[in-house]
Structures are given as C-alpha cells and as structure tokens.
Amino acid sequence: MTDAARQPPFASPPSDSDSSRRSSPARRSTDPDDPYAISADAIKDPPTTLWGALRQIGPGIILAGSIVGSGELILTTAFGARWGFLFLWLILFSCVIKVFVQIELGRYALSEARPTLAAIHDLPGPSFLTHWMNWWWLVMLLATTFQLGAMVGGVAQALQLAFPGASPLLVNLLGGPESPLGGPIALRPEHPWAILTALAAAGLLLLGGYNAVEKITTAMVVSVTAVTVVCVLALPATGYPVTLGELSKGFSFAMPAEAMAVAFGVFGITGVGASELFFYPYWCLEKGYARSVGPRTDDEAWARRARGWMRVMHLDAWVSMLVFTVATVSFYVLGATVLHRQNLIPAGFQTIEVLSEMYVPSFGPWTKVVFLLGAWAVLFKTLYVSSAGNSRLFADFLDLTRLVPLHNGAERARLVQVLCVFFPLFALVLYFVFRDPRLMVMIGGFVQGTMLPLISGAALYLRYYRTDRRLTRFGLFDVCLWVAFISITIVASRSLFDTLQPAGEGLRQWVVAVWRVVSWQ
Q1: Domains identified in the chain, total number
Q2: Cα distance between residue 152 and residue 429, in whole Å
Q3: Is 12 part of a structural domain of the chain?
Q4: Domain for residue 300, yes or no?
C-alpha cells in the first residue's frame, strides 16, 4: 500500500513549505539512547490476554497523575459546594468525551512514531521555524507554569497545616522572628515547605527516565485515589451521607440559566486538559508502543501488530479515565455534601483546611493530618508529572525549531534532565513573586482552554489525512471524536467570550471617558 493509497480521496497534497517542514528531525532512528527510536530489531507482538495487556499500560496512569490536581481538588470541590449534585452528569461527560481526542493523538503516534509537537510541525499552515500552533503551545507552557507555581504553593500550605509547629521551630533555630533569616519565614511560614517541595520534585525527576516516572506516579495515583474514595465512603460517619435523591438530581441533566457560565467552567477544568493531550503521545512512545509495532510497512503483519498495540493503548486510556474520574467525582461529592449543606464556599486553598476538619469529630485529630497529606500528594504528583512532561516537550520544541539542535538521544536526555530541574524551580520563583495560587491556576486554565479546540481539530486532521488508514476505520469512534471537538469548541468559545467581555466593557468605558474629556462634556 502506497502513501497515496493510505490517504482519503479528499486529502490535499502538501505544499512545498509543508514538505520542507516534514524534513525536520523525526524519531525514526536506531539510536539506542533515543526513547522514541524504532527499528525492526525492537518489534514485539502485542499481548493476547487481558492480564498481559494490563501489564503493558502506564502512559495513561502517568496522565491521571497530571490530571487530578489543583483544578479537581480546589475548583471541582468548590463547584460542588456552590451547586450541590446538579452538575454530576456534566463532570462525568467531561471526563469521558475528551478521552477520544487523547486516543486519536496516541493512534497517530503509534502509526507514525512521531510525538505531538512533531505532528503539529508537519501540519499545513503558517510557520516560522515551526508551525504557528507550536508557538501557541509555547505560550501555553509559560502560562501553565503558573499552575505549577500554584501546585508548589498548595503543597506548601497543606504541609504547613499538617505540621504547624515545624516553621516556628525553624524560625527559632535561625535566630528568631527578628533575625534576617527567621523574619521572612515568620511572615510566610509555608515558604520553607515550598522550597522543599520544588527540590523534592526536581530530585525525583533526576532519578531516571520513563520507568521511574511511571512507577513513582503509579504509587502516588493509587494512594491518592484510595484516600479520596475512603473519604467519600466515610461521609455517613461524619453526618453527611449521600442520598439516592441527591444522586438522581445529579443525573437530571438540568441546566439553570444562572448556572450556564459555571457549567462551561466545569467542562473546561475536568478530565483531560490541553497539556495532558500534548503529553500523552510522548508517554506512549517512551513506553514503547510504536517501537513494538516497528517501522511502518505495507504488509499485513505490520497492520496486525499495530491494531494489537492499539487495543493495548485503548485499554490504557480507559483505565486512566476510570482512575481520574473516580478521583474527580470524589472531590465533587465532598463539596456537594459537606460544604453545600453548610452553605460554605471556601475561597481557593481554604477548601483544603475546611475539608480537613470534617472528619475530626468522628475519627479524631489524626484524620486531619491524613487528609492534608492526601491533599499534599494530589498537588505534588501533578507538579512532578507536569514538570516531567513539560521537560520532554520543551526539549522537542527546541530541537524542531533548531534553536537547540539535538543530534542524538544522549544530548536530548541531558537537556531533559536540565529542564526537569528548571521547571520546578521556576514554578517556585513564580509562587514567590505572585503569591496567589488561585490567580495562577486561572491564568494557566484560560490559556489551556484556548488550546483545547486547536489540538482537538489537529487530532481530526491527523486521523483523516496523516494516520495509516488501516488503523482508522469509520464508526462510532468518529462520531464521538466529532462530538468531543464540537463540545470543546463551544465551551472554549463561551469561556473566551466570558473572559474578554469584562475587558471589552472596560475598554468601552475608557473610550467614552476619553471622548467626554476631549469634547468638554
């Protein structure tokens, strides 16, 4: 089967500029130090049993570690506090529907052995060194680093609440609150915890490559999910049982007019975000899915292997969806029961402190420490996984643009290690400068929201124009992928309108005021 035969009849041929961009560095090499290298020597048949396939999952679990973070812990809980169970159905829909985009990007990576930024680099359209969408990704990277700063701050605040005597002890050891070193810590007692958090994340990232990230993330995801589920199961003992009436209200598909803006926000922050969609193909390649399939050939053996490993990747994606959906719904239920019934809507990271108190009357003070450590793990693992993903993508961006040409896998590995130290420390600096975790989360969330329809549209293009047609049979998956793209685009458009409307009104008022001054009115 030729390349032309693999493309649909309506696919337009690439322009000269597109062809020149496709000559950019690819991962089709035999470099043993390159985690994205593929060769005939590394071909492996896909597992034939469910247990064998489960042993090959991992990229999705890493993704779940990135997904369940400050948005789920803070904002989802706050939505539950404000609206009760009203939006439970929407949260479930949001967690499920975006997975189809995730799978499609993974399919292209498995078919072509190229990660996300390289795939976008090859798309038709305006470019300067690389495709314009990759430059917008760079803007998103900078914005989402603000979110990592919020993670550093959130982790520090959770540890400060769990161990309130540690910082005063450190202040005394440094000469008291009047000393040059003890004074700043006395004013901001969470700062030592923030420094320790950033250094711990950087240290763990330097322990190894993909295997270390997968093992550490899996341990943290399992523990965090277990803690959140136990917290929900223990609600009846605290006097906040979940009733069938409340659950049925959560599936009434109601959408009050006054809640419309909130509903769009719920959809935007839950489930797979834009950053995670960019991450997933990289983790799939490092896991070895494309390497096991081998270089693409026209024979049926390649197609059979590719379809087999695609089934493994599907399982990986849906298992991860189950994990982060359980965690997200658990946080939502905590807000919809404990906080909503008390009419409490804590601001930002105060949510952690309020929720940590609710188990103390029934189980004792030790439960507060356990809950706070769980909150610490939620935020820390997101900082850890996001820093690992950002390091890989930024290294790829520098290579694609030839700003920092990488000639082999060893050079790339060294650059990734440097970036694994840089991103946690940069996030720490941002937290020290801005000091407002809520604002930092909002900045990153807004830019991610603008990227979601772009990366979803790119996934559609890759499916119909670039992915091997033997892996893209038309069916229900196509319908769900289009539903995801349309839903994401509508939500992003509405969110952008809601965000820019106040700015537009402010500009209008400023113009009117200037006109009155000029016209002496």
Answers
A1: 1
A2: 10
A3: no
A4: yes
Please check whether residue 100 is in contact with residue 477, taking contact to mean a CB–CB distance below 8 angstroms: yes
Phi-psi region of 233 (alpha: psi -120 to 50; beta: other; left: phi over 0): alpha
Question: What SS3 class is residue 271?
Answer: coil
**Cα separation, 378 vs 372, whole angstroms:** 10
Q: Which of 24, 119, 113 is nearest to 399 (CA)?
A: 24
d(CA 43, CA 394): 29
DSSP of 343-386, one letter per residue? T----TTHHHHHHHTTTHHHH-THHHHHHHHHHHHHHHHHHHHH
Q: How far is the C-alpha of 443 from the C-alpha of 71, rounded, in Å?
A: 12
The two tokens of residue 469 are 């047609």
- DSSP code, position 403: S
What is the model's pTM? Answer: 0.84
* Residue 496 belongs to a domain: no
pLDDT one-digit tens code per residue, 317-354: 999 999 999 988 888 888 888 878 877 766 656 667 77
Higher-scoring residue by pLDDT: 491, 414: 414
One-letter amino acid for residue 86 of the chain: L
Grade residue 7 by pLDDT with cuts at 50, 70 and 90. Answer: very low
Structure tokens at 489: 């685009």
